[in-house]
Write a structure and sequence with these properties.
mainly alpha, 71% helix, elongated
């Protein structure tokens, strides 16, 4: 009796690692921006911008 093939994963390991590291970078930038004296809203925007900017760089570096 043969086993049915396993379904493909929702995210590949590479994609999950890139997204997690981008989220960590975004959190770090947001916290450091807030600790630098900026209000929370601009700090969140700085973190989101850093996370979005980190994705292409991480994608090309981790290949």
């Amino acid at each position: 009796m043969t086993n049915p093939p396993l379904p493909e994963p929702f995210l590949t390991l590479h994609t999950a690692f890139v997204l997690v590291t981008a989220a960590l970078i975004g959190c770090l930038v947001g916290v450091l921006t807030h600790l630098g004296g900026t209000r929370p809203a601009p700090a969140v925007l700085a973190g989101l911008t850093a996370a979005a900017g980190a994705v292409p760089g991480q994608r090309s570096l981790i290949r």
